[in-house]
Design a protein that fits this description.
With 170 residues, the protein is mainly β. The chain is built from one helix and 15 strands, in the order ββββββαβββββββββ.
Length: 170
Amino acid sequence: MVMIKNNLVQDPPEPWFKVGTVLVGGLYQVGYVKDRDIILIHSASKLTLTDTMTGERLSAGQDQFVSVEHYRRLKMPGFGFLVGEIIPTAGIWGGSLPVTTSAGFSLRKRDAHWPVPDVDLIYPDGRAVCVSTHNVCDIRAYGFSNTSFSFVIATESDVQIFARSHEGLS
C-alpha cells in the first residue's frame, strides 16, 4: 500500500492525480452536478461551485439559512450558471456519493484507524492506495462524480479533489 502523507506531497498512481485542496470552514455538505465534474461545496460561510478537473472556483454565493430540516432533504438548488438545477448532496446530514465507477475503481473508508480515518482508492486490479490521511476524525463525505473522472474527500475543514485524464478512456 502506498501511503500518501497529509495533504499529499505526491500524486496517487496513474491515471489519478491530486487536483488540490479547497479549505473551508464548517463544511455542511458537497454534491456533484449531474453528468459534470463540478462540485457544490456548502459550508457555514458560503456556497461554491468548483471544477473538479482543474480546481477552478466557478461561482460563489451566500446561503440563506432556512432550517436544518431544509438541508436534510439532501438536495441543494443550483446557483450562478446552474440556477434551476437540483444538486444531490452528502455530508453532515447524511447522504452519500457514488463509491464505485464503471471502470472498476472504488473508494473505501477505513475506520479501523480511528480517530484518524483514511480513504483508500481501490484500483481495478485490487491494489489499494491510501489517498487521504487526516488529522481529523470527521470525514463528512467522499465519492466519485457520475462521470467517473473525479472524486472528492470532504472533511469539516477541507475538500480534497482528485481527477484522472479523459485521454484514451471511454
